[in-house]
Write a structure and sequence with these properties.
459 residues; alpha+beta; Uridine Diphospho-n-acetylenolpyruvylglucosamine Reductase, domain 2; Uridine Diphospho-n-acetylenolpyruvylglucosamine Reductase, domain 3; Vanillyl-alcohol Oxidase, Chain A, domain 3; 4 domains; 7-stranded antiparallel beta sheet; 5-stranded antiparallel beta sheet; globular
C-alpha cells in the first residue's frame, strides 16, 4: 500500500475532480484511468512505480498531457503525473540549467530570460519540456541550435524497479542515448533534466507572412518556394508553415518563426516568399521571450483534433505538390480547420549523425503533417475517417513518422518512428524494462516481448 503522504495525492474515480484531472489537451481522447498519482518529488514516483510493479498494473507517465494520441493516459491504467515537479536552477559556471519534469515551455522560457539565454524548445506554451525532449524536440531555433534533445546532458528518472537513476554520457549512457528521441513514457518516470545553455541573445526578429483567400496557383508557388528555400544554408531561421482551410477564412497560408538577426536581414532572407502574390508580412524586432509569447498567443487551452506528422527528404514534382494541396481542399463535416503543416529541418539538426541519438531522421528536409480540428463530438467519426484516408497519401510521399506527432494508424510504427535505430531501442528496452511495465499502444517493445505485447499492450 502507499504511505499516507502519497495517498493524499491520489485522484480516484469517485473523487470530485476526477473528470477534470483525467482530461488531456486533445479533448477528442477520453480515457478513464484507475488512479492518477501526482508526484511532488522523486520519492513519490519511486513509490508509485514500486506499487504498480507489485500489483502488475500498467503505468502511463504524464507531464503536460499533450500526447496527440493520449498515450500518457489509459483506461484502467495507473497514471503517474509529474506536472508538480517545477524546480528550476541554473549554474552559469558549468553553463547548465536543471529543471523538474513538470516545467513547461513557457515556464522554461521565462526562467532563462532572466539571465538572457534563449532555448531551442517548442512553440506550445503548455507542452512540458520533458516530453518534447524525449521525442527529439522541434522548435523555431532548430536550424540555429539543433533539437531540444541535442542540449540534454543528463536525465534523472525512476526505472521500472522503482530505483532513482542518473543517465548521462558516463552513467547508463545507452539509456541516455535512448532518451534523446526514443519518445516519452517508454523507460521510466523522468523527474529532472539538465541541459547545456546556449550563448546569450538580446533580440530576434519574429517573422509572420500571411496569404489570404488563396487559389491553387498560390499554394503551388508557395510549395515550390518552400522546398527551394530550405536548401539555402540559412540556419538563422526555422519557419513553420501551414496551407490551411479554415471555416472562418477559407483557404490560406502562413509562415512564421524566429530569425536570429535584424529585420533587415530577415527581410532579405525570406525575399522569395515575399514575391509570392498576396504576401502580407510583419517583422517585429523583439526579445527572445517576447517572440515565444507571440507564438504562444495562437494556442487554445485545449482542442479536439487529429494530427499525423512525417518526414520529407527530397523535392516534389508539380504533380505531387498538387496532390498535397488537394488534401485540404475539402474539410470533413464539422471540421473548423484543416491543414497541411510544414516544419523546417536542416541546419544544426544535421550536425549529428542519425545514430548519435535515438532521433533518426536528421537528414530530412522538413516534417509534413496533416490535421483536422472540430468542436462537436457528433462529427468525430467523419473527421477520423477524413484523416485516415489522407494519411495513406501522406505515407506515399514521405519516409518516416515523427514520434512527437504520433498517429495510432501508423503501420509498422517501430520502423516508422525510429528507422535504423529501432533494434537498438528494443535492446535497451529489454535491458531497462524487461517486464515491459511501461507499455502502451505504440510503446517500444522489448526484443523478446512482441507476442506478449500484442496480447496485453493495447487499451
Amino acid at each position: 500500500m502507499f504511505n499516507e503522504d502519497i495517498c493524499s495525492k491520489i485522484i480516484l474515480p469517485f473523487c470530485s475532480d476526477y473528470h477534470r484531472k483525467r482530461q488531456i489537451f486533445n479533448r477528442s481522447i477520453q480515457k478513464y484511468p484507475s488512479a492518477i498519482i501526482y508526484c511532488e518529488n522523486a520519492r513519490d514516483a519511486e513509490e508509485a512505480v514500486r506499487y504498480a510493479a507489485s500489483k502488475g498494473m500498467e503505468i502511463r507517465v504524464r507531464s503536460g498531457g499533450h500526447n496527440y494520441e493520449g498515450f500518457c493516459i489509459g483506461n484502467k491504467r495507473l497514471v503517474i503525473d509529474t506536472s508538480l515537479l517545477k524546480d528550476k536552477s541554473i549554474c552559469e559556471d558549468t553553463q547548465t540549467v536543471r529543471i523538474g519534469s513538470g516545467v513547461n515551455n513557457r515556464e522554461l522560457y521565462h526562467y532563462l530570460s532572466q539571465y538572457g539565454y534563449p532555448f531551442p524548445s517548442g512553440t506550445c506554451p503548455t507542452v512540458m519540456a520533458v516530453g518534447l525532449t524525449q521525442g527529439g524536440g522541434w522548435g523555431h531555433s532548430s536550424r540555429m541550435f539543433g533539437l531540444t534533445c541535442d542540449l540534454l546532458v543528463e536525465a534523472e528518472l525512476v526505472d521500472p524497479r522503482g530505483n532513482l537513476i542518473v543517465a548521462n554520457d558516463r552513467e547508463h549512457s545507452d539509456l541516455f542515448w535512448a532518451l534523446r528521441g526514443g519518445g516519452g513514457g517508454n523507460f521510466g518516470v523522468i523527474t529532472s533534466l539538465t541541459y547545456q545553455l546556449l550563448p546569450k541573445v538580446t533580440k530576434v526578429t519574429y517573422v509572420d507572412i500571411q496569404y489570404s483567400k488563396i487559389n491553387d496557383g498560390t499554394s503551388l508557388h508557395f510549395l515550390r518556394t518552400w522546398q527551394k528555400w530550405l536548401l539555402k544554408k540559412e540556419n538563422r531561421f526555422t519557419p513553420n508553415s501551414r496551407i490551411f482551410n479554415s471555416e472562418k477564412e477559407g483557404m490560406g497560408i502562413f509562415l512564421r518563426g524566429f530569425f536570429y538577426g535584424t529585420p533587415e536581414e530577415a527581410t532579405a532572407s525570406v525575399q522569395p516568399f515575399l514575391k509570392i502574390c498576396g504576401a502580407k508580412a510583419s517583422f517585429r524586432y523583439v526579445t527572445f521571450l517576447e517572440a515565444t509569447e507571440i507564438d504562444a498567443s495562437v494556442y487554445p487551452p485545449f482542442e479536439k483534433f487529429r494530427f499525423a506528422g512525417r518526414f520529407v527528404c527530397g523535392n516534389y514534382s508539380n504533380r505531387q505538390m498538387v496532390s498535397i494541396i488537394r488534401l485540404v481542399k475539402k474539410r470533413a463535416r464539422g471540421s473548423t480547420y484543416a491543414s497541411v503543416a510544414l516544419y523546417a529541418l536542416g541546419g544544426k539538426v544535421r550536425d549529428l549523425s542519425p545514430c548519435e541519438t535515438a532521433f533518426y531522421y536528421r537528414k530530412a528536409n522538413y516534417i509534413m503533417g496533416i490535421e483536422t480540428i472540430w468542436k462537436s463530438p457528433e462529427v468525430q467519426p467523419e473527421n477520423l475517417s477524413w484523416i485516415h484516408a489522407r494519411f495513406r497519401c501522406l505515407c506515399s510521399l514521405t519516409v518516416g513518422s515523427y514520434i512527437n506527432f504520433p498517429y495510432l494508424c501508423t503501420g509498422n510504427y517501430m520502423k516508422a518512428y525510429y528507422g535504423g535505430n529501432a533494434k537498438r531501442l528494443m535492446c535497451i528496452k529489454s535491458k531497462y524494462d524487461p517486464c515491459n511495465l511501461f507499455r502502451f499502444a505504440q510503446s517500444i517493445k522489448p526484443c523478446y516481448a512482441s507476442r506478449i505485447y500484442k496480447i496485453r499492450g493495447k487499451d
